[in-house]
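Hi everyone, sorry if this is the wrong subforum. Our group has a chain we'd like a structural model of before ordering constructs, and none of us has done structure prediction before. Sequence below.
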Amino acid sequence: MLIEETAEAGALSRLSSKLSQFLSELKSVRSRQFLLSLAQLCYSDTSLAYETWVTLFPRLWACLSDHQRQALSGEVSPFMCSGAHVTQIDSHPSPVGAFLEGALLCKPQPPVRSCVLQYLSKTHNYWHGGALLLEDRAQPQLGKPNEAKQPPSYDGNYSDQLLDPFRQETLDSLSDVYASLNEEDLWAGLWTLRCQFPQTVTAIAFESQGLFEQAQQSYESAIKQAKDLHDTAAAPPSVISEYEVWEANWCRCAQELGQWETLSDFGRSQNGANPFLVLENAWRIQDWIAMKEASTQAEPICSEAYSSKLNLLRGFLALCYPDEQRLSAVEKLIEAASIQSIKQWRRFPKIVARAHVPLLQLSQQIMELQEAHTVHNGLQMGGLTRQNFHTDVKTIFKTWKNRLPTCSDDLSHWSDIFCWRQLHYKHLVKAYENSPNTEQNNHAMVVVHHSATAIIEYAKIARKQHLHSVCLDSLSKIHSIPSVPVLDCFQKIRQQVKCYIQMSGVMETSELQDALEVIESTNLKYFTKEMIAEFMALKGNFLAHIGRSEDANRSFSAAVQLHDSLVKAWALWGDYLDQLFTSDRNLTLAVSALTCFLHACRNQGEGKSRKYLARIIWMLTFDDEKSTLAETVEKYYIGISPVLWLPWIPQLLTCLVRKEGGHILNLLCGVGKAYPQAVYFPIRTLYLTLKMEQREKHKADQQSKASTPTATTAGESSSQHGVGGGEGGGQAEPMDTTLSTGNGAQGVKIHSGPDLSLAKQLNQVQLLQAKITAITSQLQLKTGPAPNATPTTQPHDPATGVPASSSSSVSTPSTQASGGGGGGGESIPIRAPASLWRCSRIMHLLRDLHPTLLSALEGIVDQMVWFRENWYEELLRQLNEGLIMCQAAAFASRADVANAQIPPEMFQFVKRLVSTFGIGLEQSGSGSSGTGGGGGGGPMSHESLAKRAQAAAQDPAFQRLKAQFASDFDFSAPGAKRLHTLMAKLKRWIKILELKTKSLQKSFLLEDRCRFLSNFSLATADMDIPGEYLMPKTMPYYVRIARFMPRVEIVQRHHSTVRRLYIQGDNGKIYPYLVVNDTQVSRCRSEERVLQLLAMINLYLNKNKETSRRYLQFAVPRLVAVAPQMRLVEDNTSNISLTDIFKQYCGSANQEWDSPMVQYYERLALLQSQGESITPETLQTLFSQIQTSHAPQTLLREWGEKSYATSTDFWTFRMQVRVICGLYL
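Answer:
Right subforum, don't worry. Here is the predicted structure as tokens:
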């Protein structure tokens, strides 16, 4: 023992000595050694150096004394603006930007002027950081959006503005940064708030909408008013910036309108000499002498940012100036412009946005210069006699022909491109004409065709942007081309007539007459029949717009007679007849319009035929008792590609259940033959919904009959003769998973679980189909075939196997359907309606034509049973729905908060919750029971409900919760019927269940529960991504399912717990889908139709210039309903809702997320108890107080700054929020 104690004492002594030695060595360690090591690491890692400086510098600044900080503050701005940092301009991240960011984090902050921030933002790639800082500084100086603008009056005294020279500096700097970033909307909003002339607001609004003619007139009006106002003395300093805006934007409007001569004259004016403006516009009017002089003047004063543009224009001059053509210098200028443009690209933010568009446009011009140089170089080398030259020229011209503008592009840019191409077209045509070789005429005609096509394309895009004067001016230039081909002449006339049609609403009577004379005087002698027919149709459209209806009808008729397969003529005639039907509601006009639309949809793409199909479906709602319109559709729909009907399948299914459904049946069958998956899930959901509605209706009828002895006897008699009542008299199996028949036929059930392989499941599906055929044969012997159907093609109920005809039976358990029944449990026959039979017939047809695909689809749906909510999650979702209903009721009864009572529907809702606690809530009104599930004929099978009830009965914790739940929601207690008391109880139980759900597993493996999905591959079935067909597409390409990813996540979405399933497409992309259980069928279908509407609106937004260039698009997920109360909804894992952001803030602030609502009703009740009147001003004050204490205005910005590491990322996030708010608000 003594030896052991001695050993321990020695070990402790050695440990103490080592510690003492270590502490002694620490005395010799200095911060210098640590800092040198850190500096070495910073040299090897740029991001570490950036983070170290931004973190370290504010702490060092805090260690300084006030005198030291004051002395250093004056040196911060000169240091950052020093020319020594010019060599670091191309460094990323910017060293000067890092220094500035560290300096701005200091407390107190060293002063930095706004002009310095502007310089650093543009020069040292601190764009978005500088813009955010300038915005914070400019906020107090801006006025209100709606305050009246009045021009400043002259009083001869501007001393207050001269004494404060920096008053407008921040706003001018911010405006310049916005303009450099090409943030036109932010720039427009800034000037709308700071301008002093009302014409400025009007002009900016017109310009933002692309109405450049009106904007130019407003700028000219403002300039005239300012000239009259300040004619006697100089203008005040505060409006100088506004005058500069007028000049710059007037020039932009002139560029968009193609007023090149006006701009060139303005640039050479004595008072406003601008060599850059002359340089950019002189080459368009081929004034090469003026361009050469302007180039000489602009070169010494050119900034580095404009150098690439200057070299490009000098390349234009060197290539096209006939007196001094220098082809050797063009290559050097192209190389210099390319290098400089790449450098400028690196100095812009890393995320490509609107700021990069001018550089992309410049790059295209450099490419066009390079290609034109190739053409001229080949001509100088005797290219007309070389075959390779003609091949190269054709390749270049073909590239130019395919490189066309989009609707969202700036017209001024494409004016440069087409004007540049015209120069070389003319040069090449002149070279061919001067050639003695007569074979060159063919090549010359090709060039002439390209030249005319370029003019027409430019006019077309100008017309689409509603710049009609530019369109007509461009089309008039085609007459300067000799020997224009007939096709190009027709295209020119076509665009001209379309332009007149668009202008018909704003043209004067004399102008309309002149336009009609131009159309009437067109010589049609050299046109083909198809061209003449289209011209007559366009003429009829113009006549219809000016009110000459009879002449328009004759013109349309003549067009169709000339060429009866011209879809454009049919479409225009259909539009004309549709307008007449809209105002007259004459069914004969509707039949004619339908005929025209159906002919117009042939041989057209989905985009062209979309609006015509929409009008067809809309017109069917006006059908008469004889189904005249439906018969017309059935007669003429043949020949329309099935792919055109895919976006309208929900509307076709709505027609299927109406009186015209018999005529739509064949149409849906045709679409289903070509695209079975697109039709099967919607028709299956509709079938199950109709069947449940029929079951509930029959159940209600049986209950009403059971109230009298006569009705009871009739019910028993019906039960004895039911289809499902065999000799055994056993209880009917659940209809969603088991097929049962009379006469002792055994049921066949498809099991799903981890122990069942894919091959076994497919074998069971084949066995199931064989049993269906056998059952059908037996039942047809008893009941006979359905009306209008042959025994060989009669469809069957896909869930029960019973023939789905108008005389067939849908079995329901007798214990639910009849009043008597004893112990036999025999089922009662229910006569199926015609709509149910039509759905069943389509499904039967799809099963016969595509057995493998539909068996796989049913297998997937059957596996959805493993994606149901457990009873905790289901009850939590139902409580949240109840709370939302209570909140709506509370807001409706806010006039008397203290005495607000529970609505009757909430009583019923809570009572059903108590009676079905942990088992499942039967929804009334939707005709369904259960809470959504997979497989078979119902959203939740009786077997699953029984298993859940049995498992819950054996759980002691469940029994305690159930008793407590029933006790809490006992309305016999005093005050229990108050609405806000019920809301408090719901919130308490929601918290309890949220804690329970958070403790459950967050994911599971697909292989453990869904073997069929785990083994699915492209070899199993050729199946598309869910919801892929219902999204309108310009290209018919659909993504196939390659496999289901192995892990399924359990996530919270919209007050419910859902399963997130990942699907890998054959393109390699992973698509997350939420398996959503819904309780209200009508709400689900309404949401699907709203999403369909948003998808259609996106197509329109993409065609409009101003919305397309701003990337305005609604986020529309793929969605498909696999059962009446279960849907697969595409998810985006990177999305977060504003509610989630607010909940995160409430968690950090240690407050309940619904505390603002609670406080609102508490204060409102207090005011009402005191007898005060509730006015809008009172509510506004109340809202401001609650917002200040619970939801500050900076909440979203603070979250974004914490979530995004850099100012560029935060700026991009803010831009996305701005776009979304612009769409929805």
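For your construct planning: Strands lie at 738-739, 748-749, 1003-1005, 1041-1044, 1047-1053, 1056-1065, 1070-1077, 1119-1123, 1126-1130. Confidence is low (pLDDT under 50) at residues 709-827, 922-941.
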